Amino acid sequence: MPDLSWRRAAAVTLKDAEHVRADPAPLIVLTLMPLLIMGFLSSAFEADLTERYGAAPGGIAVTGAEQAVPGIAAMFCFFLVSYVGQTIFREHGWRTWNRLRASPLRAAELIGGRVTSTLLLALTQQTVLFAVGGALFGLHVRGSVAALAVVAVALAASMVCFGFALIAFCRSMMQLNALAYLTGLLFAGCGGGIVPYATLPLWAQALGKVTPTYWAMRGFNEAVLGGAGVDGVLLPVAVLLGLAAVFALAAWCVFRPEQVKVPWS
């Protein structure tokens, strides 16, 4: 049984944090861009949501942010995949991957540290988008904020595992970028992240039910519009964690430490 060290895994997480601090521009863009999109879309959803859900208890009106904020936050969570891919591909570009493999750092510690840093990054993005987007566009959560947080954690976990599955599959950063943005848009479009799920054509609704975004939006809607507590979002959370397990298994089966990754071409 290999002697695993949480300290070595934590060192990988801290090193990733240093890289984010040294070049925060991509992460800032992936946070500011969704806020801008929320501003454009919130008013477009106001009439539809008011008709279907009405005012909240106490007479608080629906603003459209109830769809725009969680929907765009869920979509951009998966756009983080390409950003996360840099944590692996840059090691190959810097020719340090083989050095890491030859060091006392074990594969499980390296991946564990990277998973932790990625999960923290996704949760930070989700927190900022819900807090700032909610404050700017009048998001009112009818249910439990804890339920909202549990769904966000499960969504982040599914994104992290999906991201590492894509990283394991792709040989170049260009391949990863293309697949990350394609799947991110597909998940958001069919899962109800861009427009309400009920307004989608039947073929998109059928496809959407196998996407993480659908289950994340189902959980978010239960908390934001349905007034649910943590017990009311257990099914979406369980499905998201199940999808995360499937993605993790796929990554485990496909990933080969000796495979050469091409940073850009």
UniProtKB/TrEMBL annotation:
Q: Membrane topology type, per the record?
A: Multi-pass membrane protein
What does the UniProt keyword field contain? Antibiotic resistance, Cell membrane, Membrane, Transmembrane, Transmembrane helix, Transport
Recorded hits in Pfam families, A to Z, give: ABC2_membrane (PF01061)
According to the record, the segments passing through the membrane are: 25-45, 68-89, 110-139, 145-167, 179-199, 233-255
State if Cytoplasm is listed as a keyword.
Answer: no
The lineage's top-level taxon is Bacteria
Q: What's the main place this protein lives?
A: membrane
Any idea where this protein resides? Answer: Cell membrane; Membrane
Q: Cite the ABC transmembrane type-2 domain residue spans from the record.
A: 25-258
Tell me which family the UniProt entry assigns to this protein.
Answer: Belongs to the ABC-2 integral membrane protein family.
Protein name according to UniProt: Transport permease protein
